[in-house]
């Protein structure tokens, strides 16, 4: 049992002994690097949790490069199928009104107002989708055609073909984007109207209720990421700042940052360039490779326990 625990600790704090060929300045720089990256993750997580409205959707929706389609499909309802469905909207909005009725303890009069807003929103949504019917049909047909073009690698290799496909894709997705802008405005307006039905004193003491995002059925999409990424950032930040399980935290951070880099490949220039994420990911690999938490971190004590346990196991063998 102890050997199993020791092996596990060696994996999460660093397998080998502490690096010997490193100067005091080098150790200080590793500590500074670890704390700086940890503080970056901590501040990102704290801001996302504090604001409460962070979403990965805009980032993935604007993904580019060879894996753009994969990342864009991670966006909640990326093709608008749920938001186009009046039956889904009706069920979604009805559930929200029921939740708001309990949350704000609506009296009969306010409950009637909420139901009236609900009926109007459902009707408006139906009319809105009908007004975009032709554009949505073109979008669906165009996306099917695009799949065929992308599947034919030989056609993509023809000079200018890739550019034509990219231009076609922008035009087709533009038809959906325009319709979804109006639908999203309707959803946002409905959420606001229901919250405003509450009494002023209730709004003053309770945060406004938000429409819950319903997962699309994918294994992972932004509706799930939005819940956990802020806490992931916060946890990684604290682990690096404290130097706890540093190799594991650093590898997790590097993987996360590498995903960001790949989703925006090739990187551009300027302050929004994803090269910064790549550089930070490589710095995390340095922290993982050196077991940097063993320098002025909690991993020092865990590693000390591991070394003493290994030494005890080795002593009888030498005797």
Rounded mean pLDDT is 85
- What is the number of domains? 2
What structural class is derived from the secondary structure elements? mainly alpha
Order of helices and strands: HHHHHHHHHHHHHHH
Task: Report the strand count.
Answer: 0
Largest sheet geometry: none
What shape does the CA trace take?
globular
User: First CA to last CA: what distance?
Assistant: 23 Å
Which stretches are poorly predicted, pLDDT < 50 over at least 5 residues? Answer: none
Radius of gyration: 26 Å
The total count of helices amounts to: 15
Residue fraction in strands: under 5%
Helix content: over 70%
Descriptive report:
The longest helix is centred in the middle third of the chain and has 36 residues, at about 160-195. α2 runs antiparallel to α12 (about 220-240) and α13 (about 245-265) packs antiparallel against α14 (about 275-290). The chain has helices at about 1-15, 25-50, 55-60, 70, 80-85, 85-105, 110-130, 135-150, 155, 160-195, 200-205, 220-240, 245-265, 275-290, 300-319. The model has no long low-confidence stretch (mean pLDDT about 85). The protein folds into 2 domains: about 1-50 and about 225-315, no CATH class; about 80-210, no CATH class. It is mainly α. About 75% of the residues lie in helices and about 0% in strands. The radius of gyration is 26 Å and the shape is globular. It contains 15 helices and no strands.
Give a concise summary:
The protein has 2 domains: 141 residues, no CATH class; 132 residues, no CATH class. Helices cover 74% and strands 0% of the residues. The protein has 15 helices and no strands.
């Amino acid at each position: 049992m102890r050997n199993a625990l020791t092996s596990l600790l060696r994996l999460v704090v660093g397998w080998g002994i502490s690096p010997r060929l490193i100067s005091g300045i080098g150790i200080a720089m590793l500590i500074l690097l670890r704390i700086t990256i940890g503080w970056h993750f901590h501040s990102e997580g704290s801001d996302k949790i504090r604001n409460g409205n962070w979403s990965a959707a805009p980032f993935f929706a604007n993904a580019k490069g060879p894996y753009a389609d994969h990342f864009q499909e991670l966006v909640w309802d990326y093709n608008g199928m749920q938001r186009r469905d009046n039956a889904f909207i009706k069920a979604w909005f009805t559930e929200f009104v029921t939740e708001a009725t309990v949350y704000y303890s609506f009296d009969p009069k306010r409950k009637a107002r909420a139901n009236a807003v609900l009926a109007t929103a459902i009707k408006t949504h139906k009319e809105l989708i009908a007004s975009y019917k032709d554009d949505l049909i073109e979008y669906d047909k165009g996306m099917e055609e695009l799949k065929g073009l992308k599947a034919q690698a030989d056609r993509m290799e023809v000079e200018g073909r890739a550019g034509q496909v990219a231009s076609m894709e922008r035009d087709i997705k533009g038809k959906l984007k325009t319709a979804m802008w109006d639908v999203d405005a309707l959803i946002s307006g409905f959420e606001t109207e229901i919250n405003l039905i509450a009494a002023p004193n209730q709004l003053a003491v309770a945060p406004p209720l938000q429409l819950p995002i319903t997962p699309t059925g994918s294994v992972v999409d932004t509706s799930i990421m939005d819940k956990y990424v802020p806490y992931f950032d916060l946890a990684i930040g604290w682990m690096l700042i404290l130097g706890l399980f540093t190799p594991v935290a650093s590898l997790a951070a590097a993987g996360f940052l590498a995903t960001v880099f790949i989703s925006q490949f090739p990187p551009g220039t300027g302050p929004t360039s994803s090269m910064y994420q790549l550089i930070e990911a490589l710095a995390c690999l340095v922290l993982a490779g050196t077991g940097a938490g063993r320098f002025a971190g909690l991993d020092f004590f865990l590693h000390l326990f591991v070394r003493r346990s290994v030494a005890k196991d080795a002593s009888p063998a030498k005797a």
